[in-house]
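subagent[fold] <- orchestrator: predict structure for attached chain, return tokens only, no commentary.
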Amino acid sequence: MWRDLVDLLWQAYEQFGFLPLFIQVAFSLIIVAILATITAYSSILYKRYQAYVHEKRLNFITPKLEDLITEQVLLNEKLSMGVPVDEIEFDPVPLSDKIYKKIWVRQVMIDVLIQYRKNFRGDVGELLRKLYIDMELTKDSFEKMKTMRWERKIKAVIELTQMNIPISDVTILPLTNSPNPLLRAVARNAYIQLSKNEPFKFFDIATEPLLPWDQLEMFRIITTTKDIMIPNFSRWISYSTNKSIVAFCLKLIAHYDQKTAIPAVMDLLNNKDHYFRAEAINCLGKLSAEIAEVRLVKIYEHQPLNCQIEILRATGMIASGKYLDFLKHELMYSTNFDIRMAATRAIINHDSDESAAIIKEVMNTTYEENRIIIKHCLNPLIRN
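subagent[fold] -> orchestrator:
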């Protein structure tokens, strides 16, 4: 039978060579399309089968794991009696069940523990962490760190971070500079949360950029992590060649009001990148750096529009009162709408008798458009 089939296929192949070229091409494309369709459907069916099996496994094991956590952690009598978490021992009998040796079960256990730890803090959260350690689930997480697949590395870093398990610098620091942006962001956030002494050490080696959304998440982590060691960020302002790191440090300097960084920030006013200069000017304004005000006004005429607007805003935030005439001049005579708007807000931000007198004077002497700008800026509902 097989020999007959082989002979038939061979004859078909020989006849195929005598067909016109366009028929050969069309027939080949049909064969390719059929094979591609079969492959695609096979892949879809296989993935659906995997998802079905995974769902069945979860439905089977999750209730057991939740019962274990409830019994060993949430209803732990020693915890309710005030026994320190480090001194609490779990019942070894349920933990020694053979089912907890299976790799897929251990992964589900990690996921469930992390979910519970997100919802419980204090001693309960620490006891969940102790269960994670006592069941040697740390080995599973660290094993995933050794793989070449970046998505498994990300999962491992997240697991260890959620469970507050220290990761050695040798392991985590290279990941903070990974070419993969997701792995890089996760590793940097983990390093900030887990490092006790130098949470910003990776700034020294960072060559890959801090993307805007990475900066938002990192800023949230830095400002909400308890007992984090906050350094003087001017060190990276002065020495880092990574512009995104410098820009991020400017935001942190302003947030933590690090006035000792003012000289380093002022040095950035010589930078050729005007977007960079604008960020430095904004930082000086937020720091109320009166020492920088004279220089800002001096360089104003030679700056592009974005830097000029930031100088006006900074003058309003510093609010020394020395340059109210400068602001008044820009309000009355500038031909740019954004300049006049920024100058008006800067004058109002001084919140002094002199600034109020200037606003009143301009309202009585200027043309209608400027009066509209002043009324807009004086509105407490939209004033910024």
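orchestrator: received. Logging for downstream: The chain has a mean pLDDT of 88. The chain has 21 helices and no strands.
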